[in-house]
Amino acid sequence: MGVKFISGGALTTIQDMGRFGYQETGMPVSGVMDKRSAALANLLVGNRTEEAVLEITMLGPAIEFTEDNIVAVTGADLGAKLNGAEFPRYEAVLVRAGQTLSFSGIRSGSRAYVAFAGGLDVPQVMGSKSTNLKSVIGGLNGRKIGAGDAIGFAAPKTFLPNMKKRRLKPEDFSAKEHTLRVVMGPQDDCFTEQGIATFLGSAYTISNEYDRMGCRMQGPVIEHKNGGDIITDGISFGSVQIPSHGNPIVMMADHQTTGGYTKIATVVSVDLPVLAQSLPGQKIRFERIEIEEAQDLLCSWMEELGRLDREWNTVTEPASDVQAVALSAALCEQKTNFSSQGTYRIVVNGEEFLVELQKETEPFRE
Questions:
Q1: From the CB of residue 175, how many other CB atoms can be counted at a distance below 10 Å?
Q2: Helix 291-313 with 35-44: angle, nearest 10 deg
Q3: Which three-class secondary structure state does DSSP give residue 113?
Q4: Is this prediction's pTM over 0.90?
Q5: Which of 70, 88, 274, 347 has the most CB atoms within 10 Å of its CB?
Q6: For the chain, what are the domain ranges?
Q7: CATH 2.40.100.10 fits 183-294, yes or no
C-alpha cells in the first residue's frame, strides 16, 4: 500500500511543480509553495524534481507506513519524529512498515515537504497531481488530507545508490527579517518616485492574511500616481500587487490568473521559497535587481539541482565484460537471500552497483 493518516495536520496537501498550460482558461498553476525544498526532497529519494510530495503547513500530520520506503523531509523544521525519535531533515531514510512519522510543532519555517521514493500513486488531473482546494481538483479528490485517508506508493524502494551521500545541511528559516529581490514592473510607472523609494526602502510586516493564494503585508503606504486600479491583466507567482490602500500583496502558488491592481514588481523565482517559509509577524524588505541577474540566479540554481542529481542518482554500469562477470560472481557469493525480486546493492573492488532481480515468466532451461 503506502501510508495512512492517523491525523491530517492543519493543512496537508499533495503538490507537485504545478499545472501548466491552463491559465488562459482561468485555471491556476498551483503546485508547491517552496519549489527549492520540494525539489531537494525528491532528489534525495531518487525522484524527478517534478514528482508529487506532501506539503505540510505549520501543524503536521501523523503518518503510519503500511509499506517500506525511502523518505526525505525538507523545508521547515516542524519537529519531525519517527516513532517518537528525532527524524533527520534533508536526508534519505528508510522507513519500515508499521513506523509512524509525526510532527511536534514549528521550530523554524512554515512548510515542510515529504518525498517518497518512487512517488505517490495519485492520478494526474490536467497534467498535474497538485491539489487546488478552490477548484476541488488534483491530489486526494481535490481536498486536504485528513484522518483515515490512505495513499499508495507508485514504486517504493528499499535501497538507492549512494545512500551515504544522500544528505544535505538542513536549511535554517529562523531569521525574523528577510530581503526579497525583485524585478521592477510591469506597472512600476504607475507609482510616484516617492512611492518607488518607499517600496524599496521600507520593511513590511507579514499579516495574518497569508495563505497559498497570496501574502498581504503591512507597512508604509506606497504612493500611486493615479490610484491602484488597472485594466485586468495576467498575474504570475511572485507578482507584487499594490491596491489603492498602498500595501503590498505578493501572489503565491494558488494565485488567480488575472487581476486588476497595479503590480509594482515581481519577486525573483529563487527568493520565493524564502517568502513561502516566512511566518506572520516577520519582516520583509525588497531589493531591486535587473532581469538578467534574476535569470542568472535561476540558471545557477538549476545547475546545482543537476549536479546533485548526477551525484546521487548516477548508477555505475559495468565498464567491460570482465567487470560484468566479476559482478555476477560477487552476486552469487553474497550470503543475502536473493529468493525474492527486488533491487540489491553489490560492491566489486570498492565500486557500488545496483542489481535488479526479477522473476522470469518462464522457468530457465539449459
A1: 13
A2: 20
A3: strand
A4: no
A5: 70
A6: 2-165, 183-294, 321-357
A7: yes
